[in-house]
Design goal:
Low-confidence stretches of chain B: none
Largest sheet of chain A: 6 strands, mixed, barrel
Mean pLDDT of chain B: 86
Low-confidence stretches of chain A: 498-507
Helix content of chain B: 55-70%
Helix content of chain A: 40-55%
Mean pLDDT of chain A: 85
Shape of chain B: globular
Radius of gyration of chain B: 15 Å
Radius of gyration of chain A: 39 Å
Strand content of chain B: 15-25%
Strand order of the largest sheet of chain A: 2-3-8-5-7-6
Number of helices of chain A: 27
Oligomer: heterodimer
């Protein structure tokens, strides 16, 4: 009796028998009692009646018995299925352990696919799905603005007066809050050294709009904002990580840019503001921001100024298009009244989850997510097809096993279930690997420090239980998808054989060709990615040794912001002088210089409209827009950027002296073609004072490592006072070791004006987005994807060749019986793999030529069609392809003809 | 006829059945007869409840049943105590004795 499929029928049969048995048992009881009563002298009829009366309601008893029996049956059925599942699992584990190579290959192929999927899932979850913590996180919309200047980008450039106009549309919005990023040098005691920290300046209703509560103390509200209170709410993270969750901090003060602020509370755990990639330490009411940032003083009234992002809770029932409609109308009214908003000014609303990682990226975020998902889906699909091929390749051995089990009475359904259980086991193994890989990838990505103009950014990507559940769901689906097909094929044992006697099935050949095409596509895709990776890696290599035009070794860059210390120009100049002397006199310091720009970190501090006498005469409008920086005496020496003609700036070039400039070679070529620039005159506006060019430097790299030569003009810093300024220090030893002595020297002369940032220039070049960072991230990411693609290709090629060998066992056996040598068999299998690989490589080379042209601009001193890189990747891939075909080829050459023909015929 | 019969409490029926079967394997009617005789017909078993109790005990694995032939040559279902059932009986008897002693001790005090 087959156990599973006819279980139901069997159960019905059991039930009928059960009823008969119960009736018989109860009848026996009553008959026995009646006999006893008869023995006591009752008539047969009376005894029977009395016995039945004593027994009570027989139907009732029967129903009670049936209920007990049904419960027992149900428990048995569940137990039976569980037992079967355990059997399948045990059998599956044993079967997988018997084939470690297969298991490992299939699981790692799937693991790569799942890792890609999981990483992208967590990215999408973090950036697009997970709502903000807070009661209203799900409903929030973000309102920014665009105009002709921003192009299609939505920027956080809404002013407070505009906020009030938006909030006045109470038919659309319940409430509207505003937020913007502020930086402040922060310290706990007035005598501490300040550290640069980020805060969000927010309107008083911010917390209530987002729906955030306090973890400790209180939050501020609209009243604090109106009264311009200097109060501060910390994020839970800053409170715990920076201040050790010290509850005495609440109710005491923190100094922001030397101004005391009262810490009133801590926001609820998990809420890190509304900027995603910029993680603030806390929140200050907009009205109180001007306390530490004087430039925020007039924000309340400035219509065209503000740089706020708005966070609005729409009224229930108001859709996004409705809200946008209202904003469009408002935008028109505003543009008409306030030309300072710029042409084409438009307020734009996006759901909060679309305004990540930043509002500015809103238009690209969804598209990017879709692109990433597609990519991950393709990788997953490839992995599934690979797994399917590998499982199919096991087919011939499995078919034998299946036939035996079928002969022993296992039903086909049971065997399919068994095989699918195995695939699910492999998938779960793959999930473990994939999860580990994805976590490592995200941790790796998140650990890369990103720095934009000294503001640390975070990736805002995290992997959590939600993602795990999604990944688990996908894994089970993958196991089913990859397992059911091959399981059906394998369990079809006899049918398959019968089919094969009349030649191969047409569907099989079509499927085979489709799999071949897929492998070709895999080879092509990995070639494209590997070539790209090669180009980026070569770029990193060149960039690391590229002649920057200056020498970043042994240079320390310190950034000061006099505004933060609230010092006027005279006080700031005096403080800067004291600092310069203190640092210059330190042992281990070779030279120091002031400047408003440091290459790569902050390459230039603005543009000058440069005119020469020649351009002015030829065309009154003729000027060249050239970037500039103000530098002090010794700057070129500290940076190792030699002045090749004329002189460097001197102390004498102060504000009272005649105005002078130094140009780089590129600027000299543009401004004074064919002439020496020394002694020439420049003007920076039509009737501006003449500026004499006194020196010439070589052209170096200023904004980006890989940039084309740019013109540059240097002015003496003493003639161009700036509050944001760098001190560059050339050290005799490692600049990293000089940091502490330099810091304490500065603190000893001016505690308020500590550097907001101090870093060896070489480190800045490493970690800055403008420096090596983007190159390294690109090179690493593309290399990882390339290796992933190659691994998948390798497994894919192996799988398809192994499958075809297992399918052709009989044919190969025949050929060998007819005299084919084992080498000729090996050769024919290798040729099959080689053909697919060659197709793929040819296709890939064509594709790579197209693709690398697109990102050629990102490369540093590397030809986007570097023949060496193209050639070596193609050769390497061909070698890998042959390698992965070799194993099945060798197996084919060792087929025993007699056995092959017997077993399969 | 016994002068006064007492209905068997639900929980005590199980232990009585186990005890009956500890004597010898028998059918449901036999179990009932044993209880009637052993208690001097003081305890009256509700015959309708006997079989559900037997089935429950079988479900718990304390008794086993099989079809056999009765003393008057009729086909009857015979119940037998399992090893598990014997252990259970011992446990319940111990518990019941302690319970009864405690009750007697409490109720036996002069009022």
């Amino acid at each position: 009796m087959s156990q599973d499929r006819s279980w139901q029928r069997y159960w019905r049969f059991l039930t009928a028998r059960f009823r008969r048995d119960v009736d018989e048992e109860l009848e026996f009881h009553i008959a026995m009692r009646a006999r006893e009563l008869e023995g006591q002298g009752l008539s047969a009829d009376a005894a029977r009646r009395e016995a039945e009366r004593r027994f009570g309601n027989r139907t009732d008893v029967r129903q009670r018995l049936e209920r007990i029996e049904k419960r027992r049956g149900l428990r048995m059925t569940i137990g039976f299925h569980l037992q079967e599942l355990f059997q399948d699992l045990r059998y599956g584990i044993r079967s997988l352990r018997k084939r470690p190579a297969f298991t490992l290959m299939t699981a790692s192929s799937l693991a790569l696919g799942l890792a890609a999927t999981t990483s992208v899932l967590s990215l999408i979850d973090s950036w697009l799905l997970r709502p903000l913590p807070g009661a209203h996180g799900r409903e929030l919309i973000v309102i920014g603005a665009s105009n002709q200047a921003t192009g299609s980008m939505i920027a956080r450039m809404v002013s407070l007066p505009t906020l009030r106009d938006v909030a006045a549309r109470s038919d659309l919005f319940v409430d509207v809050a505003a937020e913007r990023v502020e930086g402040a040098a922060t310290r706990r005691a007035a005598t501490d050294l300040a550290e640069p920290r980020i805060y969000l300046g927010v309107t008083g209703n911010y917390f209530s709009v987002v729906g955030i509560g306090a973890a400790a103390g209180r939050l501020f509200d609209a009243e604090d904002d109106r009264q311009r209170q200097r109060v501060l709410v910390l994020t839970h993270r800053a409170w715990t990580e920076r201040y050790g969750a010290d509850s005495s901090l609440i109710g005491s003060q923190l100094y922001l840019n030397t101004v005391p602020y009262l810490v009133v509370g801590v926001a609820q755990k998990g809420f890190a503001g509304t900027e995603h990639v910029i993680v603030p330490d806390g929140f200050v009411p907009v009205g109180g921001v001007a306390g530490f940032n004087p430039s925020a003083g007039g924000l309340d009234q400035a219509r065209g100024d503000g740089w706020f992002g708005l966070f609005a809770r729409p009224r229930p029932g108001v859709s996004l298009p409705q809200a946008q409609g209202g904003l469009d109308l408002l935008s028109q009214q505003l543009t008409a009244s306030y030309p300072e908003l710029g042409d084409g000014y438009r307020l734009e609303a996006v759901p909060e989850t679309r305004a990540r990682p930043s509002l500015e990226s809103a238009r690209g975020t969804t598209a990017g997510a879709v692109a990433f998902s597609l990519l991950a889906f393709l990788v997953l699909l490839t992995a599934i097809v690979n797994a399917t091929n590998l499982i199919l390749a096991q087919g011939s051995t499995r078919r034998g096993e299946m036939a035996v089990r079928q002969a022993l009475g296992a039903s086909r359904g049971r065997m399919v279930r068994q095989l699918v259980t195995e695939t699910l086991l492999v998938s779960l193994l793959a999930l473990a690997g994939g999860w580990f890989l994805a976590r490592a990838a995200i941790a790796g990505l998140s650990s890369i420090p990103i720095d934009v103009m000294g503001t640390p950014l975070e990736w805002g990507i995290s992997i959590d239980g939600r993602v795990f559940l999604m990944a688990l769901g996908i894994t089970l689906l993958v196991g089913l998808v990859a397992g059911v097909g091959p399981a059906l094929v394998a369990s079809r044992g006899q049918l398959e054989q019968r089919l094969r006697e009349g030649g191969r099935a047409g569907g099989g050949r079509r499927a085979h060709r489709a799999r071949g095409a897929l492998v070709v596509a895999q080879v092509a895709a990995s070639l494209i990615v590997l070539v790209s990776a090669g180009l980026f890696v070569a770029s990193v290599d060149r960039a690391a040794s590229v002649d920057l035009g200056f020498d970043p070794e042994r240079v320390l860059a310190l950034r000061f912001d006099a505004n933060l210390a609230h010092q006027d120009e005279a006080a700031a100049r005096a403080a800067f002088d004291r600092i310069e002397r203190a640092v210059r006199d330190l042992p281990g310091v070779e030279a120091v210089a002031w400047s408003t720009a440091v290459p790569i970190e902050h390459g230039s501090d603005g543009m000058l409209e440069a005119r020469t006498d020649a351009t002015s005469q030829a065309n009154r409008a003729g000027s060249l827009s050239i970037m500039s920086a103000a530098v002090g005496p010794g700057y070129f020496e500290v940076l190792g950027m030699p002045v090749v003609d004329g002189r460097s700036f001197a102390l004498a070039d102060d504000s009272a002296a005649p105005r002078v400039a130094i140009v780089n070679r590129r600027a000299a070529e543009l401004l004074f073609p064919g002439r020496s620039p020394i002694g020439q005159t420049l003007r920076f506006s039509l009737d501006g004072p003449p500026v004499e060019v006194v020196g010439l430097t070589e052209t170096s790299r200023y904004l980006l490592i890989g940039e084309a030569p740019r013109p540059m003009i240097y002015l003496p810093v003493a003639q161009q006072f700036r509050t944001l300024i760098y001190l560059v220090v050339r050290t005799t030893g490692s600049p990293g070791l000089a940091m502490e002595p330099v810091r304490s020297a500065i603190v000893s002369v001016d505690r308020d004006l500590a550097p907001v940032r101090m870093s060896p220039l070489a480190d800045i070049i490493e970690t800055s987005v403008n420096g090596m960072l983007s190159l390294r991230v690109a090179a690493t990411a593309v290399s990882v994807i390339g290796l992933l693609a190659m691994a998948l290709t390798l497994v894919g090629l192996y799988g398809i060749i192994a499958y075809s060998v297992s399918e052709r066992t009989r044919e190969i056996g025949l050929r060998m019986a007819l005299g084919a040598t084992s080498w000729s068999v090996t050769r024919s299998v290798l040729a099959q793999g080689g053909r697919l690989a060659l197709f793929g490589i040819g296709l890939g080379l064509l594709g790579a030529l197209l693709v690398t042209g697109v990102f050629g601009g990102l490369l540093v001193d590397v030809n986007a069609r570097d023949p060496l890189i193209f050639g070596s990747v193609a050769l390497g891939l061909a070698a890998v392809a042959l390698g992965s075909s070799y194993l099945p080829a060798r197996r084919a050459s060792r087929i025993d003809p007699v056995k092959a023909i017997k077993t399969d015929g | 006829m016994p002068p006064a019969s007492v209905a068997v409490l639900k929980g005590s029926l199980d232990v009585l059945i186990l005890r009956a079967l500890a004597e010898a394997p028998t059918h449901g009617y036999g179990v009932m007869r044993w209880i009637e005789e052993a208690t001097g017909a003081v305890l009256q078993v509700d015959e309708g409840s006997l079989y559900p109790a037997l089935y429950r005990l079988e479900d718990r694995g304390w008794v086993e049943s099989d079809w056999g032939t009765s003393e008057n040559n009729r086909r009857a279902r015979f119940y037998r105590l399992t090893a598990k059932g014997r252990a259970q009986l011992k446990l319940e008897v111990g518990q019941f004795v302690r319970f009864a002693e405690a009750m007697l001790q409490a109720l036996g005090r002069p009022a």
